[in-house]
Amino acid sequence: MKYFIKVSSFILFILISRSVNSQDKPASAFTLDESIKYALEHSYSVKNASLDEEAAKAKVKETIGIGLPQIDGAAGVQYNPKLSRFFSTYSGPNGFLGDLSGVPGIQPGDVVAAQNFFQLKSNGDVNVAINQILFNGSYLVGLKAASSYKELSTKMSGQTREQTISQVSKAFYLALTNQERIKLFDSNLARVDSLLRTTTALNQSGFAEKIDVDRVRVTYNNLATERRKFENIQSLAYELLKFQMNYPMNEAISIIGSLEDIQVPDLSSYQDHEYTKRWDYQVAQTNVKLKELDLKNQYAASIPSLVAFAKMGYATQSPTISGLFKTNSGISDNGVLGPDKWYGYSLLGVSLSVPIFSGLQRNYRVQQSRLNLLKTENSVKQLETAIDLEVKQARITFDNSVQTMQSQKENMELAANIARVTKIKYEQGLGSNLEVVDAEAALREAQINFYNSTYDAIVAKIDLDKAYGNLYPTETSK
Questions:
Q1: pTM of the prediction?
Q2: Contact present, 176 and 257 (Cβ < 8 Å)
Q3: Which fold has domain 2-66+136-303+361-468?
Q4: Domain segments of the chain: what residues?
Q5: Which residues contact 417 (CB under 8 A, 6 or more apart)?
Q6: pLDDT digits 0-9 by tens, 406-442
Protein backbone atom coordinates (compact mmCIF):
# COMPACT_ATOMS: atom_id res chain seq x y z
CA MET A 1 0.00 0.00 0.00
CA LYS A 2 1.40 3.27 -1.13
CA TYR A 3 1.22 5.32 2.04
CA PHE A 4 2.69 2.50 4.10
CA ILE A 5 5.66 2.35 1.75
CA LYS A 6 6.15 6.11 2.17
CA VAL A 7 6.96 5.79 5.83
CA SER A 8 8.50 2.32 5.94
CA SER A 9 12.04 3.54 5.26
CA PHE A 10 11.74 6.07 8.09
CA ILE A 11 10.16 3.66 10.55
CA LEU A 12 13.13 1.32 10.18
CA PHE A 13 15.23 3.88 12.07
CA ILE A 14 12.85 4.03 15.02
CA LEU A 15 13.73 1.85 18.00
CA ILE A 16 10.50 0.29 19.21
CA SER A 17 10.94 -0.27 22.92
CA ARG A 18 7.99 -1.39 24.99
CA SER A 19 8.32 -2.21 28.67
CA VAL A 20 6.21 -4.92 30.30
CA ASN A 21 4.52 -2.41 32.60
CA SER A 22 3.54 -0.11 29.73
CA GLN A 23 0.82 -2.53 28.62
CA ASP A 24 -0.87 -2.12 31.99
CA LYS A 25 -0.99 1.67 31.70
CA PRO A 26 -3.99 3.30 30.06
CA ALA A 27 -3.22 4.84 26.68
CA SER A 28 -3.23 8.61 26.48
CA ALA A 29 -5.65 9.80 23.80
CA PHE A 30 -4.78 12.78 21.59
CA THR A 31 -6.66 14.79 19.02
CA LEU A 32 -4.70 16.35 16.17
CA ASP A 33 -4.54 19.74 17.92
CA GLU A 34 -3.44 18.09 21.16
CA SER A 35 -0.76 16.11 19.32
CA ILE A 36 0.59 19.28 17.72
CA LYS A 37 0.51 21.17 21.02
CA TYR A 38 2.36 18.34 22.78
CA ALA A 39 4.98 18.23 20.01
CA LEU A 40 5.55 22.00 20.13
CA GLU A 41 6.16 21.73 23.86
CA HIS A 42 8.34 18.60 23.88
CA SER A 43 10.05 18.29 20.49
CA TYR A 44 13.82 18.54 20.78
CA SER A 45 13.98 20.51 17.53
CA VAL A 46 11.52 23.08 18.89
CA LYS A 47 13.34 23.19 22.23
CA ASN A 48 16.64 23.84 20.48
CA ALA A 49 15.01 26.54 18.37
CA SER A 50 13.74 28.21 21.56
CA LEU A 51 17.23 27.97 23.05
CA ASP A 52 18.61 29.66 19.93
CA GLU A 53 16.13 32.49 20.50
CA GLU A 54 17.30 32.90 24.08
CA ALA A 55 20.93 32.83 22.93
CA ALA A 56 20.15 35.55 20.38
CA LYS A 57 18.59 37.72 23.10
CA ALA A 58 21.74 37.26 25.19
CA LYS A 59 23.83 38.17 22.13
CA VAL A 60 21.92 41.45 21.79
CA LYS A 61 22.57 42.30 25.44
CA GLU A 62 26.23 41.37 25.02
CA THR A 63 26.52 43.79 22.09
CA ILE A 64 24.81 46.55 24.06
CA GLY A 65 27.29 45.95 26.87
CA ILE A 66 30.18 46.85 24.59
CA GLY A 67 29.00 50.47 24.64
CA LEU A 68 28.79 50.61 28.42
CA PRO A 69 31.79 51.57 30.60
CA GLN A 70 34.42 48.86 30.69
CA ILE A 71 36.05 48.67 34.14
CA ASP A 72 39.06 46.46 34.81
CA GLY A 73 41.13 46.03 37.94
CA ALA A 74 44.74 44.87 38.02
CA ALA A 75 47.35 44.14 40.65
CA GLY A 76 50.86 42.86 40.26
CA VAL A 77 54.38 42.74 41.64
CA GLN A 78 57.59 42.41 39.67
CA TYR A 79 61.18 41.55 40.61
CA ASN A 80 64.13 42.31 38.33
CA PRO A 81 67.24 40.32 39.35
CA LYS A 82 69.29 42.48 37.02
CA LEU A 83 68.07 45.90 36.03
CA SER A 84 68.82 47.29 32.61
CA ARG A 85 71.52 49.97 32.44
CA PHE A 86 70.86 53.68 32.40
CA PHE A 87 72.28 55.36 29.29
CA SER A 88 73.29 59.02 29.17
CA THR A 89 75.72 61.37 27.45
CA TYR A 90 78.69 62.46 29.57
CA SER A 91 78.69 66.27 29.64
CA GLY A 92 81.71 66.90 31.84
CA PRO A 93 82.53 67.11 35.54
CA ASN A 94 79.58 69.40 36.26
CA GLY A 95 77.09 67.26 34.38
CA PHE A 96 74.39 64.95 35.57
CA LEU A 97 76.76 61.99 35.93
CA GLY A 98 79.33 63.91 37.96
CA ASP A 99 83.07 63.86 37.45
CA LEU A 100 84.20 60.83 35.41
CA SER A 101 87.59 62.26 34.47
CA GLY A 102 89.26 59.51 36.45
CA VAL A 103 87.79 56.82 34.22
CA PRO A 104 90.21 56.08 31.36
CA GLY A 105 88.91 56.81 27.87
CA ILE A 106 85.86 58.84 28.92
CA GLN A 107 85.52 62.14 27.13
CA PRO A 108 82.67 64.69 27.20
CA GLY A 109 80.07 63.72 24.59
CA ASP A 110 80.57 59.95 25.05
CA VAL A 111 77.55 57.73 25.82
CA VAL A 112 77.90 56.21 29.26
CA ALA A 113 76.02 53.13 30.57
CA ALA A 114 75.59 53.62 34.31
CA GLN A 115 73.78 51.70 37.02
CA ASN A 116 69.97 52.33 36.92
CA PHE A 117 69.57 54.40 40.05
CA PHE A 118 66.06 55.55 38.97
CA GLN A 119 64.46 52.12 39.58
CA LEU A 120 64.63 49.56 42.33
CA LYS A 121 64.64 45.85 41.59
CA SER A 122 61.11 45.22 42.91
CA ASN A 123 57.96 47.18 42.09
CA GLY A 124 54.24 46.81 42.73
CA ASP A 125 51.15 48.33 41.14
CA VAL A 126 47.42 48.21 41.92
CA ASN A 127 45.03 50.06 39.61
CA VAL A 128 41.53 50.37 38.17
CA ALA A 129 41.11 51.33 34.49
CA ILE A 130 37.90 52.63 32.90
CA ASN A 131 37.23 52.86 29.17
CA GLN A 132 34.11 54.34 27.54
CA ILE A 133 33.27 54.44 23.85
CA LEU A 134 32.21 57.95 22.84
CA PHE A 135 31.80 57.20 19.15
CA ASN A 136 32.40 54.08 17.09
CA GLY A 137 30.67 53.45 13.76
CA SER A 138 31.16 49.68 13.90
CA TYR A 139 29.50 49.57 17.32
CA LEU A 140 26.41 51.39 16.05
CA VAL A 141 26.14 48.99 13.12
CA GLY A 142 26.71 46.08 15.50
CA LEU A 143 23.67 47.10 17.54
CA LYS A 144 21.47 46.85 14.44
CA ALA A 145 23.10 43.56 13.43
CA ALA A 146 22.46 42.06 16.86
CA SER A 147 18.79 42.98 16.61
CA SER A 148 18.60 41.42 13.14
CA TYR A 149 20.34 38.30 14.44
CA LYS A 150 17.66 38.01 17.10
CA GLU A 151 15.01 38.42 14.41
CA LEU A 152 16.67 35.68 12.34
CA SER A 153 16.60 33.22 15.25
CA THR A 154 12.90 33.96 15.81
CA LYS A 155 12.05 33.29 12.18
CA MET A 156 14.13 30.11 12.09
CA SER A 157 12.29 28.99 15.21
CA GLY A 158 8.99 29.56 13.39
CA GLN A 159 10.29 27.54 10.46
CA THR A 160 11.15 24.68 12.82
CA ARG A 161 7.67 24.78 14.37
CA GLU A 162 6.09 24.71 10.92
CA GLN A 163 8.13 21.62 10.01
CA THR A 164 7.14 19.95 13.28
CA ILE A 165 3.44 20.62 12.65
CA SER A 166 3.74 19.14 9.15
CA GLN A 167 5.47 15.98 10.39
CA VAL A 168 3.08 15.44 13.32
CA SER A 169 0.01 16.04 11.15
CA LYS A 170 1.10 13.50 8.55
CA ALA A 171 1.95 10.92 11.21
CA PHE A 172 -1.38 11.53 12.98
CA TYR A 173 -3.44 11.13 9.80
CA LEU A 174 -1.51 7.98 8.90
CA ALA A 175 -2.50 6.44 12.23
CA LEU A 176 -6.07 7.74 11.86
CA THR A 177 -6.42 6.27 8.37
CA ASN A 178 -5.09 2.94 9.60
CA GLN A 179 -7.52 3.08 12.51
CA GLU A 180 -10.41 3.50 10.10
CA ARG A 181 -9.08 0.64 8.01
CA ILE A 182 -9.08 -1.68 11.02
CA LYS A 183 -12.73 -0.83 11.66
CA LEU A 184 -13.45 -1.64 8.04
CA PHE A 185 -11.63 -4.95 8.39
CA ASP A 186 -13.92 -5.84 11.28
CA SER A 187 -16.96 -4.98 9.18
CA ASN A 188 -15.69 -7.05 6.24
CA LEU A 189 -14.87 -9.99 8.50
CA ALA A 190 -18.35 -9.91 9.98
CA ARG A 191 -19.93 -9.83 6.52
CA VAL A 192 -17.74 -12.65 5.15
CA ASP A 193 -18.30 -14.66 8.35
CA SER A 194 -22.05 -14.34 7.80
CA LEU A 195 -21.57 -15.46 4.20
CA LEU A 196 -19.46 -18.41 5.38
CA ARG A 197 -22.15 -19.55 7.80
CA THR A 198 -24.81 -19.22 5.10
CA THR A 199 -22.74 -21.12 2.53
CA THR A 200 -21.95 -23.85 5.09
CA ALA A 201 -25.65 -24.24 5.87
CA LEU A 202 -26.50 -24.42 2.16
CA ASN A 203 -23.80 -27.08 1.70
CA GLN A 204 -25.17 -29.11 4.55
CA SER A 205 -28.62 -28.85 2.97
CA GLY A 206 -27.29 -29.92 -0.41
CA PHE A 207 -27.82 -26.56 -2.12
CA ALA A 208 -24.11 -25.66 -2.32
CA GLU A 209 -20.94 -27.52 -3.09
CA LYS A 210 -18.03 -28.00 -0.74
CA ILE A 211 -15.85 -25.92 -3.04
CA ASP A 212 -18.16 -22.97 -2.47
CA VAL A 213 -17.55 -23.23 1.26
CA ASP A 214 -13.82 -23.46 0.68
CA ARG A 215 -13.79 -20.32 -1.50
CA VAL A 216 -15.52 -18.28 1.19
CA ARG A 217 -13.29 -19.73 3.90
CA VAL A 218 -10.17 -18.78 1.92
CA THR A 219 -11.55 -15.24 1.64
CA TYR A 220 -12.23 -15.15 5.39
CA ASN A 221 -8.77 -16.48 6.28
CA ASN A 222 -7.07 -13.97 3.99
CA LEU A 223 -9.04 -11.14 5.58
CA ALA A 224 -8.15 -12.29 9.10
CA THR A 225 -4.47 -12.62 8.18
CA GLU A 226 -4.43 -9.19 6.53
CA ARG A 227 -6.06 -7.67 9.59
CA ARG A 228 -3.39 -9.09 11.90
CA LYS A 229 -0.67 -7.70 9.63
CA PHE A 230 -2.43 -4.38 9.59
CA GLU A 231 -2.50 -4.24 13.38
CA ASN A 232 1.31 -4.53 13.35
CA ILE A 233 1.50 -1.76 10.75
CA GLN A 234 -0.73 0.38 12.93
CA SER A 235 1.56 -0.17 15.93
CA LEU A 236 4.44 1.16 13.82
CA ALA A 237 2.30 4.14 12.82
CA TYR A 238 1.79 4.90 16.52
CA GLU A 239 5.54 4.63 17.08
CA LEU A 240 6.12 7.11 14.27
CA LEU A 241 3.58 9.51 15.79
CA LYS A 242 5.22 9.24 19.22
CA PHE A 243 8.62 9.87 17.66
CA GLN A 244 7.39 13.04 15.91
CA MET A 245 5.71 14.23 19.13
CA ASN A 246 8.69 13.23 21.30
CA TYR A 247 6.21 11.22 23.35
CA PRO A 248 7.73 8.51 25.61
CA MET A 249 8.30 5.50 23.39
CA ASN A 250 7.59 3.02 26.19
CA GLU A 251 4.12 4.41 26.90
CA ALA A 252 0.92 3.58 25.05
CA ILE A 253 -0.86 6.20 22.95
CA SER A 254 -4.15 6.44 21.08
CA ILE A 255 -5.77 9.03 18.86
CA ILE A 256 -9.19 10.65 18.69
CA GLY A 257 -10.79 11.58 15.40
CA SER A 258 -12.57 10.38 12.29
CA LEU A 259 -11.92 10.78 8.60
CA GLU A 260 -15.50 12.00 8.26
CA ASP A 261 -14.60 15.06 10.38
CA ILE A 262 -11.94 16.18 7.91
CA GLN A 263 -13.04 19.12 5.80
CA VAL A 264 -11.44 19.17 2.37
CA PRO A 265 -11.50 22.78 1.14
CA ASP A 266 -12.16 23.79 -2.42
CA LEU A 267 -9.08 24.74 -4.41
CA SER A 268 -10.68 28.10 -5.24
CA SER A 269 -10.21 29.13 -1.59
CA TYR A 270 -6.46 29.24 -2.24
CA GLN A 271 -5.84 32.49 -4.10
CA ASP A 272 -2.57 34.17 -5.05
CA HIS A 273 0.19 33.40 -2.59
CA GLU A 274 2.36 35.92 -0.76
CA TYR A 275 6.05 35.27 -0.27
CA THR A 276 6.16 37.06 3.07
CA LYS A 277 3.73 34.55 4.60
CA ARG A 278 6.38 31.86 4.44
CA TRP A 279 8.97 31.42 7.17
CA ASP A 280 11.75 30.41 4.79
CA TYR A 281 11.24 33.59 2.78
CA GLN A 282 11.36 35.74 5.89
CA VAL A 283 14.56 33.97 6.93
CA ALA A 284 16.04 34.78 3.52
CA GLN A 285 14.99 38.44 3.83
CA THR A 286 16.62 38.68 7.25
CA ASN A 287 19.82 37.22 5.81
CA VAL A 288 19.79 40.01 3.21
CA LYS A 289 19.42 42.54 6.01
CA LEU A 290 22.41 41.05 7.82
CA LYS A 291 24.51 41.18 4.66
CA GLU A 292 23.57 44.85 4.21
CA LEU A 293 24.65 45.56 7.77
CA ASP A 294 27.92 43.73 7.18
CA LEU A 295 28.58 46.00 4.22
CA LYS A 296 27.81 49.06 6.35
CA ASN A 297 30.17 47.75 9.00
CA GLN A 298 33.00 47.57 6.48
CA TYR A 299 32.40 51.21 5.60
CA ALA A 300 32.14 52.13 9.29
CA ALA A 301 35.59 50.68 9.88
CA SER A 302 37.07 53.64 8.00
CA ILE A 303 35.38 56.21 10.29
CA PRO A 304 37.40 57.66 13.21
CA SER A 305 36.52 56.32 16.67
CA LEU A 306 36.66 58.20 19.96
CA VAL A 307 37.27 56.58 23.36
CA ALA A 308 37.55 58.17 26.81
CA PHE A 309 39.71 56.50 29.45
CA ALA A 310 40.72 56.90 33.05
CA LYS A 311 43.12 55.07 35.34
CA MET A 312 43.66 55.28 39.09
CA GLY A 313 46.00 53.25 41.23
CA TYR A 314 48.81 52.90 43.72
CA ALA A 315 52.46 52.03 43.00
CA THR A 316 55.66 51.46 44.94
CA GLN A 317 59.21 50.14 44.57
CA SER A 318 61.65 48.31 46.83
CA PRO A 319 65.02 46.60 46.58
CA THR A 320 63.31 43.32 47.56
CA ILE A 321 59.92 41.69 47.07
CA SER A 322 59.22 41.57 50.80
CA GLY A 323 59.98 45.25 51.04
CA LEU A 324 56.95 46.05 48.90
CA PHE A 325 54.66 45.02 51.75
CA LYS A 326 56.45 46.78 54.57
CA THR A 327 55.50 50.17 55.93
CA ASN A 328 58.23 52.74 55.46
CA SER A 329 58.48 56.48 55.78
CA GLY A 330 58.16 58.44 52.61
CA ILE A 331 57.33 61.86 51.31
CA SER A 332 53.68 62.34 50.40
CA ASP A 333 52.38 64.35 47.48
CA ASN A 334 52.21 67.52 49.61
CA GLY A 335 55.82 67.11 50.72
CA VAL A 336 55.02 65.79 54.22
CA LEU A 337 56.63 62.62 55.57
CA GLY A 338 54.17 59.73 55.76
CA PRO A 339 54.17 56.16 57.12
CA ASP A 340 53.25 54.42 53.84
CA LYS A 341 55.29 54.22 50.66
CA TRP A 342 52.37 53.17 48.33
CA TYR A 343 51.59 56.35 46.44
CA GLY A 344 48.50 57.04 44.42
CA TYR A 345 48.38 58.17 40.81
CA SER A 346 45.64 58.89 38.28
CA LEU A 347 45.22 59.83 34.66
CA LEU A 348 42.36 60.93 32.39
CA GLY A 349 42.31 61.13 28.63
CA VAL A 350 40.56 60.84 25.30
CA SER A 351 41.86 58.72 22.45
CA LEU A 352 40.99 59.41 18.82
CA SER A 353 41.77 56.66 16.33
CA VAL A 354 41.79 57.68 12.65
CA PRO A 355 42.25 54.92 10.04
CA ILE A 356 44.52 56.26 7.31
CA PHE A 357 45.82 53.41 5.18
CA SER A 358 45.43 49.66 5.61
CA GLY A 359 47.10 48.39 2.50
CA LEU A 360 43.73 48.45 0.64
CA GLN A 361 42.47 45.69 2.94
CA ARG A 362 39.32 47.64 3.82
CA ASN A 363 38.63 48.22 0.13
CA TYR A 364 38.77 44.52 -0.62
CA ARG A 365 36.67 43.66 2.44
CA VAL A 366 34.02 46.07 1.17
CA GLN A 367 34.13 44.35 -2.22
CA GLN A 368 33.68 40.94 -0.62
CA SER A 369 30.73 42.16 1.49
CA ARG A 370 29.09 43.71 -1.56
CA LEU A 371 29.47 40.48 -3.55
CA ASN A 372 28.09 38.42 -0.67
CA LEU A 373 25.10 40.77 -0.52
CA LEU A 374 24.47 40.28 -4.25
CA LYS A 375 24.67 36.51 -3.82
CA THR A 376 22.14 36.61 -0.99
CA GLU A 377 19.79 38.80 -3.03
CA ASN A 378 20.06 36.32 -5.90
CA SER A 379 19.22 33.51 -3.48
CA VAL A 380 16.05 35.35 -2.49
CA LYS A 381 15.02 35.70 -6.13
CA GLN A 382 15.76 32.02 -6.67
CA LEU A 383 13.64 31.20 -3.61
CA GLU A 384 10.74 33.21 -5.06
CA THR A 385 10.91 31.13 -8.22
CA ALA A 386 11.07 27.93 -6.16
CA ILE A 387 8.04 29.02 -4.12
CA ASP A 388 6.08 29.72 -7.31
CA LEU A 389 6.89 26.24 -8.58
CA GLU A 390 6.11 24.63 -5.22
CA VAL A 391 2.72 26.34 -5.06
CA LYS A 392 1.82 25.23 -8.58
CA GLN A 393 2.90 21.66 -7.86
CA ALA A 394 1.00 21.64 -4.56
CA ARG A 395 -2.16 22.95 -6.23
CA ILE A 396 -2.02 20.35 -9.00
CA THR A 397 -1.22 17.52 -6.57
CA PHE A 398 -4.04 18.58 -4.26
CA ASP A 399 -6.55 18.89 -7.10
CA ASN A 400 -5.60 15.48 -8.50
CA SER A 401 -5.70 13.88 -5.06
CA VAL A 402 -9.16 15.25 -4.28
CA GLN A 403 -10.54 14.10 -7.63
CA THR A 404 -8.99 10.67 -7.15
CA MET A 405 -10.40 10.43 -3.62
CA GLN A 406 -13.89 11.35 -4.81
CA SER A 407 -13.65 8.84 -7.65
CA GLN A 408 -12.42 6.08 -5.34
CA LYS A 409 -15.16 6.88 -2.86
CA GLU A 410 -17.75 6.43 -5.58
CA ASN A 411 -16.06 3.19 -6.69
CA MET A 412 -16.11 1.91 -3.10
CA GLU A 413 -19.81 2.68 -2.76
CA LEU A 414 -20.55 0.96 -6.07
CA ALA A 415 -18.43 -2.05 -5.09
CA ALA A 416 -20.22 -2.26 -1.74
CA ASN A 417 -23.59 -2.18 -3.46
CA ILE A 418 -22.46 -4.85 -5.96
CA ALA A 419 -21.25 -7.07 -3.12
CA ARG A 420 -24.54 -6.61 -1.26
CA VAL A 421 -26.69 -7.40 -4.32
CA THR A 422 -24.49 -10.34 -5.33
CA LYS A 423 -24.81 -11.85 -1.85
CA ILE A 424 -28.59 -11.45 -1.91
CA LYS A 425 -28.81 -13.08 -5.34
CA TYR A 426 -26.62 -15.96 -4.13
CA GLU A 427 -28.71 -16.50 -1.02
CA GLN A 428 -31.83 -16.62 -3.20
CA GLY A 429 -30.21 -19.07 -5.59
CA LEU A 430 -29.95 -16.58 -8.47
CA GLY A 431 -26.17 -16.21 -8.46
CA SER A 432 -23.01 -18.22 -8.02
CA ASN A 433 -20.68 -18.38 -5.08
CA LEU A 434 -17.79 -17.38 -7.33
CA GLU A 435 -19.53 -14.08 -8.15
CA VAL A 436 -19.85 -13.35 -4.43
CA VAL A 437 -16.16 -14.03 -3.82
CA ASP A 438 -15.16 -11.85 -6.78
CA ALA A 439 -17.44 -9.08 -5.55
CA GLU A 440 -15.87 -9.22 -2.09
CA ALA A 441 -12.37 -9.05 -3.60
CA ALA A 442 -13.38 -6.08 -5.74
CA LEU A 443 -14.84 -4.36 -2.68
CA ARG A 444 -11.63 -4.82 -0.67
CA GLU A 445 -9.56 -3.42 -3.52
CA ALA A 446 -11.90 -0.43 -3.82
CA GLN A 447 -11.66 0.16 -0.06
CA ILE A 448 -7.86 0.02 -0.16
CA ASN A 449 -7.78 2.48 -3.06
CA PHE A 450 -10.18 4.81 -1.25
CA TYR A 451 -8.16 4.97 1.95
CA ASN A 452 -4.90 5.33 0.03
CA SER A 453 -6.37 8.24 -1.94
CA THR A 454 -7.81 9.75 1.24
CA TYR A 455 -4.44 9.80 2.94
CA ASP A 456 -2.83 11.20 -0.22
CA ALA A 457 -5.42 13.99 -0.30
CA ILE A 458 -4.77 14.83 3.36
CA VAL A 459 -1.01 14.95 2.80
CA ALA A 460 -1.56 17.08 -0.31
CA LYS A 461 -3.63 19.52 1.75
CA ILE A 462 -0.89 19.76 4.39
CA ASP A 463 1.70 20.44 1.69
CA LEU A 464 -0.59 23.00 0.07
CA ASP A 465 -1.09 24.85 3.37
CA LYS A 466 2.67 24.80 3.90
CA ALA A 467 3.29 26.15 0.39
CA TYR A 468 0.90 29.03 1.08
CA GLY A 469 2.34 29.66 4.55
CA ASN A 470 -0.93 28.73 6.28
CA LEU A 471 0.32 25.76 8.30
CA TYR A 472 1.96 27.89 10.99
CA PRO A 473 1.14 31.51 10.14
CA THR A 474 3.81 34.19 10.40
CA GLU A 475 3.17 37.61 11.87
CA THR A 476 2.50 38.80 8.31
CA SER A 477 -0.25 36.20 7.93
CA LYS A 478 -1.99 36.98 11.22
A1: 0.79
A2: yes
A3: Outer membrane efflux proteins (OEP) (1.20.1600)
A4: 2-66+136-303+361-468, 73-83+120-135+305-354, 85-118
A5: none
A6: 999 999 999 989 888 888 887 777 777 778 788 888 8
